[in-house]
Amino acid sequence: MKRNVLLLGCAAFLLLSLNLVGAEIKKGSTIAFNRGGDIWLMEADGSDQRPWVAGIANVRGRMSWSADNNKLVFARAGKVDIKYPDGGGGYHSTYDLFFAYADSANNWWDGITQTLGAFAPQFATDGSKILFIYDIVANQVNAMLPQYRVAFWDTESFAITTLDFEKGSDLVATAPALAPDGDRLAFILMRLQGEQFTPSGLVIARVSEFPLTDEEFVTRSRGLMNATSPSWSPDGNWMAYISSDLSNPGLYLIKPDLSEKRVLWKPPPGLSLTGAHPSWSSDSQMLLFATVNGSIYKITITGGEPTRLSGPGNDNFPAWCN
Prior knowledge:
By secondary structure, the chain is mostly beta strands. Helices cover 8% and strands 46% of the residues. The chain has two helices and 23 strands. A four-stranded antiparallel sheet has the order 3-2-1-23, with no helix packed on it. A four-stranded antiparallel sheet has the order 4-5-6-7, with no helix packed on it. The N and C termini lie far apart (49 Å).
């Protein structure tokens, strides 16, 4: 019986592997997206939707292609479930980063971090590092509240560095986005009040400026409140973001110096945008975004009505290849 189970398991793994490796990635066309916790691919017109990394059902959050489109970095989710000796308990989510390879010579996925707190990755344009959100207490079994930091994973040394706040700070950073120059950084500043995180606004800072004072971070965040999920255009001229203002929701564009802002698309009644970072085409002329009914859309930066590429269903977090 044990031998039969082992053979069945090996056969299932082999079949899964054969179906998932050797993906054809078309420069500037292929889009990766999350469908029900697996990674799927499609073309820029929504055609040829096919599974790539499937059967794991725990892919979470933003994904990002390397500059040569040879690999995609993504996060998988788990959790720590704790039962205290005197009763009670709870759980918190854990995450780590993985590579999915377009070339079947390198296995179909591979873990690159072991922090239990790494998610929402973004490749730097030059490929030297990967930006991500780092919950620095995720590996503590009794940690009920996350402590988010902006962090980098060096693709050569594999070292992790964090951008920290003042000692004793109650601030956290979420939804970071790195500019094409590799230095300018946008992220959403939040403050822990009791057991709740309260958004302050979007902060733009240079990596070389850290650590700034909490007062300076808060001051900068007031320039663009009710914003989330920033995403720099590849040419560096624009930043796209999702408005979290319930009275004025939508997909927006803004100049990095905050000098010019315009709404690109407002969802009709009954439809709203997810918190996924918008994803740019390599020529900085089009954007992908997702809606809460599990659809993915494409829109030009000149505006107009978007084109639905997938869904409704269970699709989210699109990532356009370079």
